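Researcher: I'd like a candidate sequence for this fold, 145 residues long. If you have to choose between options at a position, lean toward the conservative one.
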């Protein structure tokens, strides 16, 4: 919009676009660590390392159990959505069939109405002539008596 004005004419014209603060490109680091970094302890006893490994495996098993539960919920939801889609597909197919039948009936009715309108148009002059003859006969009878 501002480019439409000539050079120097847009000095006193305010912009319609609001000023936006500059966006942050680097996200702020999380306040707490999600994991503990690996540290190698050469002085650790084999029993301590075995206990640490078992603890890590137990934590991973718990996380895998949670992941498995989440995936099972997603599977159940997907199956329910599939069932709903099948029901709706059937309903839409039935509706399509009914609409096709209704279209056929309406086309037939329209053709019949067109024939009646065409017949009335063609016979309109005959009806008018008959009505005028009838009026003429009534006038002749009235004036003769």
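Model: Candidate sequence:
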């Amino acid at each position: 919009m501002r480019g439409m004005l000539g050079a120097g004419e847009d000095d006193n014209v305010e912009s319609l676009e609001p000023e936006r603060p500059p966006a942050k490109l680097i996200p702020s680091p999380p306040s707490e660590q999600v994991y503990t970094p690996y540290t190698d302890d050469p002085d650790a006893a084999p029993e301590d390392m075995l206990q640490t490994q078992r603890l890590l495996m137990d934590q991973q098993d718990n996380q895998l159990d949670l992941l498995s539960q989440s995936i099972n919920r997603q599977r159940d939801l997907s199956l329910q959505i599939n069932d709903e889609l099948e029901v709706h597909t059937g309903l839409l197919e039935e509706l399509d069939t009914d609409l096709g039948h209704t279209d056929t009936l309406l086309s037939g009715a329209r053709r019949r109405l067109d024939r009646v309108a065409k017949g009335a148009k063609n016979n309109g002059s005959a009806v008018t002539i008959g009505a005028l003859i009838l009026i003429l006969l009534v006038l002749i009878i009235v004036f003769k008596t």
